[in-house]
Amino acid sequence: MPLSIEFQSFISRSAWSTNLTDEQLTRVYMDAYQRSYSAGALICHRGDPADQWLGVIEGLVKVDTVSKGGRSTTFAGVPAGSWFGEGSVLKDEPRPYAVIALRDSEVAFIPRSTFEWLIDNSHSFSRFVIDQLNARCAYYVGLVANLRLNKASARVAFCLAELFNPQLFNATDPTRGLSQEEIGRLSGLSRQNTNRALHDLADAGLLMIEYGSVRILDLQGLQDFAHSED
């Protein structure tokens, strides 16, 4: 099925596609596909073969896992404009996490064979993937330290600030359409603690709480606050 204009535009806006040749871009357009998911829908099962590289065209998804006891841990929230899952694709291993739509979402899929072909044939694409993996590693190191060491407000600050990581997420709009419940899931906090933390950050002049969303007023200040207890 031919790609929609919106889907082609999404790919052409992605940083990794900028320096692809016409041949390489044509193959991506031929092999890529998209699917729609309603809020709460499971996009990828934990343990499934990691046969695709994923991108979020619209909406918001989360990467998480559930313990045998039923406890859920969210590793990351992935907003629109972002690509993820390259580590599992490269390692050719079962996906070690589940991917779930936090809201109605459009998700792009690039097959592993196409992803690996780009790695082999495009220096710029390979460079992008290396930088992506490096940024992702730094994110998870920071996430572990944040969850273990910091109080609730710093945890929420880290969660929100990382949604604007220029390498991992193509974020330009200072408003993030996240409910307090969604922010709590991403931060590992109860809704009550999330609400208190958001008001602390708002009182500090770092963000503005709006209905169903958060507007970042001072991204650098939010990043500094997230690491203030390191």
UniProtKB/TrEMBL annotation:
Annotated GO MF terms: DNA binding; DNA-binding transcription factor activity
Pfam families noted in UniProt: cNMP_binding, HTH_Crp_2
GO terms under cellular component: cytosol
Keywords assigned: DNA-binding, Transcription, Transcription regulation
SMART domains according to UniProt: cNMP, HTH_CRP
Regions crossing the membrane: none
InterPro entries: cNMP-bd_dom (IPR000595), cNMP-bd_dom_sf (IPR018490), Env_Response_Regulators (IPR050397), HTH_CRP (IPR012318), RmlC-like_jellyroll (IPR014710), WH-like_DNA-bd_sf (IPR036388), WH_DNA-bd_sf (IPR036390)
Domain Cyclic nucleotide-binding intervals: 16-136
Keyword Transcription regulation: yes
Domain HTH crp-type per the UniProt entry, residue ranges: 150-220
PANTHER family on file: CRP FAMILY TRANSCRIPTIONAL REGULATORY PROTEIN (PTHR24567), DNA-BINDING TRANSCRIPTIONAL DUAL REGULATOR CRP (PTHR24567:SF68)
Protein name: Crp/Fnr family transcriptional regulator
Taxon lineage: Bacteria, Pseudomonadati, Pseudomonadota, Betaproteobacteria, Burkholderiales
